[in-house]
Amino acid sequence: MNGKNVPENRLPAPKDPLAWEELSREHIVQDQWIDFRKSAYRYPDGRVFEPFYSYSRRDYAVIVASDTDGNYLCVRQFRHGIREVTTEFPAGGIERKDGKEYGTSQDLSAEDALAAAKRELLEETGYESEEWSHLLTIPSNATVSDNYAYLFAARNCRRVTGQHLDETEDLTVVKHTAQEIEEMIQDGRFQQAMHVTAWLLSLRRESRA
Q1: Which class does domain 60-208 fall in?
Q2: Closest to 89 in 3D by CA, of 204, 202, 168, 208
Q3: Across the 209 residues of the chain, what is the mean pLDDT of every consecutive 10-residue run?
Q4: What residues does CATH 3.90.79.10 cover in the chain?
Q5: What are phi and psi of 5, to 5 degrees?
Q6: Which of 84, 77, 110 is nearest to 96 (CA)?
Q7: What are the backbone angles phi and psi of residue 208, rounded to the nearest 5°?
Q8: Tens digit of each residue's pLDDT (9 = 90 or more) over 39-66
Q9: Residue 83 region, left (φ>0) first, then alpha (ψ -120 to 50), else beta?
Q10: Considering the entire predicted model, what is its pTM?
Q11: N- to C-terminal Cα distance for the chain?
C-alpha cells in the first residue's frame, strides 16, 4: 500500500474498450451518511441506457484477529440489511477529514488503513496486537458501490482495555475456534462476504508460513 491508502491496482489505467461512458448523474440522496446516485451510460456500441443505480460509502477495514490462545475475536450485532444479528469479525470505516460516511479514502483520508484497523479492533473489542498482516484490498461490491475493503490479520491479540463504541454501535464480543468459524460459514451463520474472504485469505497465509 502507498501513503494514500490507494493500492497500485487502483491507479489510472488505459481506457478499456468494454468501459461504459457515464453521461449523467443524479444524486437521489446525498447526506452525511450516503451518496445514492442514478446514472445514464453509453455502451461501447453507442447505445444509451438508464437508470443505473450506485452508491458511495467510505472504505473500511476488516480484521481477522486471534488471541494468545489461538481463539478468534468476533462480534455479534444487528444488521438491518438482512434484519438479523450476525457473527462477524471486528471491522469499521476509515475516518475521513470531512466526517462523512461516504467517499473513498483516497479523496479525504484522515488515517491510513492499518491505523483504522488497529483503532477499530481496540474500540470494538478492547484488544490490540503487534503482529499485523495486510491480506488484500478489494472492492466491497463492485456492481453498485465504489468503496474498498482493506482486509487484515492480527495475531496474539491481548486485551488492554474495555470497549469504546460509537453511538450507533451495540455489539458483544465473542470468541470462536477456527473449527467453529468454519462450521458457521458452512451453515450460513457467518454472513458477511468480505469477512469470509478475509478468513480464507488468513488461512492461506498461515498455511504458507
Answers
A1: alpha beta
A2: 202
A3: 48 80 96 92 96 94 98 96 96 83 62 93 97 96 94 98 85 97 97 98 89
A4: 60-208
A5: 70, 10
A6: 110
A7: -90, -15
A8: 999 999 999 999 999 999 889 999 999 9
A9: left
A10: 0.88
A11: 21
